[in-house]
Records
---
Amino acid sequence: KAVVSTQSTQSQQNRSFLSMSNPTPDSLCVFFRKSYERGVVEGLHEDYIYVRSVDTGLRHHVPRSNVYRMAEQFRKVSCYARRCTLSEIQPFDGTDWDSDCLRIFGQIRHTNITTLG
């Protein structure tokens, strides 16, 4: 005699209901890899959705079945990561960055507005 867990069935139904049926770029979502994370849809593939974690800044391709809708009100919650790179930039003298440069870069990472000039 087989016994089916209604809790397990209910959990599967909830996940199915929350799945993103028609995701679009810039849609807010929750995705699951090793844990649940907030994300923003960056691209679409037949089997995967490319998402950027708003809390780590990392980009992932996640199976569509592991990407879920998230209410837009959560877009107002501050992100914990800001994507930032310095590409092909080196100190003039070819040595390590000095403490002033490292301090300024630290400020850039922790502020919303950066003015260079």
---
Amino acid sequence: MTEFACQLNEMEFGIAPTDSRFRPDQRLMEECLWDAANLEKVRLEEKQRNSEKRWERGEEDMKSVDVLSVQSRQIYTPLWFQKGMDEIIPKTSSYKYTEKYWEQKKMKLWNMCPKIY
């Protein structure tokens, strides 16, 4: 890994708990613990799959998202982006950044974030 890449992944105070810099498998890779990193990556992926299945069945509290019931299906709404019509390409939808991340970071208020690690 280059010095530049390592600096990009350096921890920063006050970031969201969902920031990829908190990924335990990433930290293990940085320490060259490849086997442990791979096991942790598999564990995280399995946790995410199980969490999604529980959420789809209505068993998991997704406190960090707006959930709408549409024809008995739940729709996930991202925290920091909002879906709308694309401003450049006609009749196309895209996600636009809402600036809410920086407001939350300033207040150090992350209670709406899911525990993904």
---
Amino acid sequence: MGELQCSKRCCTSWLRANILLLLTLGGVALGFVLAIILKDFNPSDDAIMWINLPGELFMRALKCAILPIIISSVVTAVATLDIKTNSKLGGLAFAFMIVAILTAVLLGLLLSLTIKPGESFNEQVDEKQLSYYETQDVFADLFRNLITDNIVKACIVTAYTDYDLNRTSVSDNTTNETTVEVDVLSKKLAYGGGTNYLGVLLFSMIFGMAMSVERQRTAVMLDFFIAMRVIVFRIITVLLWLLPLASISLIAASILGVDDIIDVFISLGLFSAAVVAGLAVHTFITVPLIYLIFTRKNPLKPVLLGSLRPGLFVTIIRSSIASTVEVLNACDRIGMNPKIYDFVVPLSINFKKDGSALFITCSCVWLAQTEGADLTSGNIVSIGILATALAMCLPGIPSSSLVAIATIAASVGIPLNNIGILFAMEWLLDALRGGTNGVSYVVNTGVVDAWFGDELKDETTENLRKNESTNAAYGQVSEHSDDDVAFKITEGNDTKL
């Protein structure tokens, strides 16, 4: 009888802890069912817009809180650590990022060259015009956005290179094929919509480091950012309960917005299978294996299991930036050190895109295979190097992964005649690779926590003891807000001043 009551309590406790996840999964299923039912009625664009509106409003509300979360989390995390500790945390985090992205690229090359999904594609599709972007300008814009000239402007717009192009159609009378030649007449620096998160992140890190040097004088400012973080987290916690409804809206609208979805799945079946298989292998085998190598600890529990919920979250909302809160909450549920995940999570979200790297790699190989082009070893190496670099500095423009694909293809000499078909599957594969990124963010933070979590915890405990001893000598009361613990020290009769 006691075991039965314990079992009931365990089940009840589990349901309460995972009710939001279960409701979200139900919303995903209902979204697919709703899309299948409404597909037969051929809803108009206006009808799809209204179906998508609840999800759109949810995303707008969520994105509204992202900037204060990033600023407050990074500033408070960096300001409470010394510069030596910041260097160690950042170095290890970037090492894991590079290794994870490299393995994702190698896995994408292996699957694409083995499965050869593009060889079964014989039907030509209309080419969809991509934004023109030169490789050198991708990296130039990365540095421009990192070093912003106006932090207020960085909260609103992102710097990018704007081109004045002359497109000329050239017909080949022998093959009856038409190609488009692009000539760059001029280019200039411009600013577009969208927050420059890279610049905001770097500024917040430097701001926090400066605060850590003068801790006594900047204590008031630190309290301000701590209060901001608490307030925004409370708002987001309430907002997240609308996720099940938003998932129904976002998924149904995405599927309804694609014409002839059955034909799309058939024509891209092998390519999608290669990408999905690569993402699954990378998520559940490669990333845990890297965690095991870095930490010599079991990656299954709690890190990998704890990262599934934020992975699902990113898959649904299709925005890594908007998943910041959920990733931070996952790290907290696992039991990681707050000083570590407040620092590493924003860093990972802005730089670590191993799921995107795998997709970019598979897409470039697929494009070459659809054209019957034989990739040399030099071409394969070039694709791998460029995909690794671009995955860490994708430009802040729409469909940035597709722009990266076009950039790599142009560099290697792969024709872009069939790239238009990738737009049809962008909504699905973007969501799936986002889920892989979400899992990897938590695991990356777990690696850093495994190395430095106990060290920072010991430093905090030692600081508390020192403060306790100092305050006891003067008969003072010391309050430590970092751990929400108040130590009340009474004056000793034998104290000699």
---
Amino acid sequence: MRFGGPRHQFVLSANLDGSLGMITPVHETLFRRLALLSNRMSVGIPHPGGLHPKVFRAVDNHTRSHGSSSASVRNVVDGSLLQSFYHLPLASQDSFTSSYGTETGRILADLDLVCRMTQIF
């Protein structure tokens, strides 16, 4: 699909609970930065209903007897958790990003890039 910009691939899914999900590939360096931020945020901010984002969205696969079921979500970053970064106070944004040696502006640019890549409507 071409929507006024460069081509990007994504998978859009409609789930049984009525929610929509989207998975899109990103460059490895972008993924590493966003995964580090996601890990810091999942520990550092309070969550609605006390649900940990990774555990709440983890796949519960009882049929698989070998390996860990968390391995299937290890390479996926939660976009809704990352979107909450925009709404944090500036001091919190700076503390999350400086804890692993990057700048807030770089993370905001990465999040804007992902938003543009997934903007289809």
